[in-house]
Amino acid sequence: MKNVKDLKSGVCIPCEQGGDPMNASQISNYTSQVPQWEVIDKENVAKLMRKFKFKNFIEAISFADKVGALAEKNGHHPKLIVEWGKVTVFWWTHAVGGLHRNDFIMAAKTDDLSIY
């Protein structure tokens, strides 16, 4: 099994509409590599979610901007909820209707942004 360093250096691949999302076994293999992320089910779609905490709104919005730049660079975009002192990030792949390796790559890369 690959490790989190492989995810951090991974490259998102374009997904075709209608492809298959990861199954529970595949998800389980990857979740151990991004342990601070939670797999949630929203409207029968598996998503990765993590809440990042900050000292104030300026730090939160700065982090959200970094996630946005990362998303643009990789061609894979999350849902972001920015609040005072907190940013909640959701990764999933719309094209497959659930989780894909791309989402775990982006979660690992997002974790790196939170260290400053």
TrEMBL record:
Into which EC class is this enzyme placed? lyase
* GO BP term, example: tetrahydrobiopterin biosynthetic process
Gene3D superfamilies, alphabetized: Transcriptional coactivator/pterin dehydratase
Ranges in coiled-coil conformation: none
Q: Recite the UniProt keywords alphabetically.
A: Lyase
CDD domains per the UniProt record, alphabetical: PCD_DCoH_subfamily_a (cd00913)
Q: Which reaction does it catalyse?
A: (4aS,6R)-4a-hydroxy-L-erythro-5,6,7,8-tetrahydrobiopterin = (6R)-L-erythro-6,7-dihydrobiopterin + H2O
| One term of GO molecular function | 4-alpha-hydroxytetrahydrobiopterin dehydratase activity
Key word Lyase present? yes
List the EC numbers from the record: 4.2.1.96
The family annotation for this protein states: Belongs to the pterin-4-alpha-carbinolamine dehydratase family.
Q: Which PANTHER family match?
A: PTERIN-4-ALPHA-CARBINOLAMINE DEHYDRATASE-RELATED
Q: What's the protein called, per UniProt?
A: Putative pterin-4-alpha-carbinolamine dehydratase
